[in-house]
Amino acid sequence: MASGHRAQWKGFLKVGEVSCGVALYTAASTAERITFNTINKATGNRVNRIFVDSETDDPVPKEEQTKGFEIDDGRYIMIDPEEIATTVPQSNKTLEIEAFVPCSEIDDVYFDKPYYLTPSDRIGSAVFTLLRDGMKKSNVAAIARTVLFRRMRTVLVRPHGNGMIATTLQYDYEVRSSKAAFEGIPKLKIEGEMLDLAKHIISTKIGEFDPATFDDRYEQAVAELVKAKIEGRSLPKPKKVQVSKPNDLLAALRESAGLAGKSPEPPKRTAANANKGTARQPASRRAAKTATPAAAQRKAG
């Protein structure tokens, strides 16, 4: 990893009897985000956070604070952080690969936090490269387990460029079922012009996944607000989003597709449709429709 970046964890990546030294580096950081301090409105001074006893209101210094698990209303079992550390399973700093799974089977709702995984020294580079390229060829990812930051974690390891990505995974009990979230969605069938317009609008917005083009509009808005405050000016209020009502949905779709005020095109008449329309008519009626005036006079005579 480039100098200036400190490894968050160092250990070993192991599968069977094959292993290599590896290091984890934070892949995502919020350090560049705009942050605020809590201020006393009356004085304009910064407010300090102080922990106080819930009953006596006396300040509690950090060295007198500990963890506690509530067993009853107002009753707690005190647990020292060192006691927690002794209960964590020993992992001897090893990312032990338990299985390889097809990439198509991975549900990203379980993804927690990504880390860059690299060899920690030149000695392990050959084994690291072997595992990385082997997974690329087989289109699989590795499920591994280790202790990270005093907690046993399941980690998904995937090839990524010249290195790999190690993503900590949520446990099954931590991920809520989608059934409860989706059960209130009504079952509707959209078809005809509305569906065609939706597909047309989607086709005009097809692009490529390029994170470099994603702008943090919240950060930009906050920065502009801070600048306006410094300059003593106010910002215009944003327009409210107009929610499309069911009765206006077709009109909104036509406007989005650039077809506002235009009549929908009639369905194209194909040879199959033309034959289908005449096939149901009796032969005598079809003959009457195609007869010429002269032929009709001769028949009458």
Automatic annotation (TrEMBL):
The entry's keywords? DNA damage, DNA recombination, DNA repair, DNA-binding
Q: Where is the composition biased (Low complexity)?
A: 282-301
Per UniProt, what is one Pfam family of this protein?
Ku
The residue ranges of the Ku domain are 57-187
Q: Which SUPFAM superfamilies match?
A: SPOC domain-like
Q: Which CDD domains match?
A: KU_like
Q: Gene3D superfamilies, per this entry?
A: 2.40.290.10
Spans annotated as Disordered? 256-301
Q: What family is reported?
A: Belongs to the prokaryotic Ku family.
Listed under subunit, the entry gives: Homodimer. Interacts with LigD.
What role is this protein assigned? Answer: With LigD forms a non-homologous end joining (NHEJ) DNA repair enzyme, which repairs dsDNA breaks with reduced fidelity. Binds linear dsDNA with 5'- and 3'- overhangs but not closed circular dsDNA nor ssDNA. Recruits and stimulates the ligase activity of LigD.
Q: What is this protein called?
A: Non-homologous end joining protein Ku
Which species does the entry assign this protein to?
Rhizobium mesosinicum
State the encoding gene.
ku
